[in-house]
Amino acid sequence: MNRELKILAIIVILVGITYWGIEPYAHSVMHPHHEPATFKYEDLKPLNVKGDAARGKEAIVNNGCTGCHGIEAAGFPAPMDPVTASATYGVNPPDLSNIASVVDRKFLANFIKNPVHAALLEHKFSDSKPYPMPAFYGSDQDLADIVAYLESIAKKDISTREAYEVACMRCHNLKYDNLTVLGEKPKFKNDVERAEFELNLAKYEANLQNYLGTTPPDLSMYIRSRGPEYIRDFVENPQKILHGTAMPRVGLTEAATEKVIKHLEKVGDRKKEKRERLGVWVLLYFVILSVLAYLWKKEIWKEVI
Fold first, then answer.
1. Architecture of domain 35-270
2. Would you state the pLDDT for residue 256?
3. pLDDT digits (tens, 9 = 90+) for 61-102
4. Which residues of 17-48 are buried (b: 16+ CB within 10 A; e: fewer)?
């Protein structure tokens, strides 16, 4: 009996050293500590001017926003197809119908005003290499009106998939959900349609790679490889985790980020809850098996011991 307890104690000590000592150290080396996401965007200036949505619609047109962006909810189609737009700008400019459903209000105003600063891309763009979207030189009132208008047309309760589409789809594929950077992959009627779609997809991805300097990863299994905490912090500020990355700060609200994470869990970790429930029963099984094995060993060896 004493020998078994000693062996058990040694195993517990070794496991404890690995779990509380070696593993956290290795994790700290591979993933240095960073401040967790707050979604306060404290480096950006608040928008203190009250906007008027009616004037905002006029301001959007007058300031040329619809020259690059579609607003389907307001009847403004995209001026270019995604492949042509990516060849022109590097990436397809987003449709603005639901941008205010996922993007923080302060961030949205600052991004319109100075997109390079708001997106934390000063290391990538400069006067000699300008960002595709120009800075806004209109009045603060025009800026507030535009934000108010975008808030007025945006959905109040956006789904997890819609949150992902607005926030991530223009750069990342999600093949396990049949989503590509061109949108949902259609059902092809024939091989000609399939070949045309794949050709356009390849063109878009090549334009995107040239624009970013790298190929954005497919996010189908990212929730499994990185975990929700990493994704949450990375979305809020990519630079504090991967300094120099080409991924911009997208300025999502905390609620929108949680919706994106939930959708990634639905796609890449569909059996998470079932797996966690099963884990308790697996541990219980091993406890019972250990007790039975000990009793069996005691019975078999009682005459020898």
1. Orthogonal Bundle (1.10)
2. 98
3. 999 999 999 999 999 999 999 999 999 999 999 999 999 999
4. eeeeeeeeeeeeeeeeeeeebebebeebeebe
Q: What is the pTM of this model?
A: 0.82
Domain edges within the chain: 1-33, 35-270, 278-305
Handedness of CA 91, 92, 96, 98 (dihedral sign): negative
The token duo for 189 is 């009627």
Other CB atoms within a 10 A radius of the CB of residue 215 amount to: 12
The tokens of 3 are what? Answer: 């020998």
Give 26-63 pLDDT, tens digit per residue: 766 666 777 899 999 999 999 999 999 999 999 999 99
The contacts found for 210-213 with CB under 8 angstroms, 24 or more apart, are: 210/90, 211/86, 211/89, 211/90, 211/91, 212/90, 212/91, 212/171, 212/246, 212/247, 213/246
Q: Which two tokens stand for residue 16?
A: 């404890």
Kindly write down the DSSP assignment for every residue of 223-259, as one continuous string: HHHT-HHHHHHHHH-GGGTSTT-SPPP--B-HHHHHH
Cα dihedral value 198, 203, 208, 213, nearest 10: 110
> 180 pairs with which residues across the strands?
183
Q: How far apart are CA 224 and CA 273, in angstroms?
A: 13
Residues 257 and 231: their CA atoms lie apart, in Å, by 9
Judge contact between 236 and 38, C-beta under 8 A.
yes
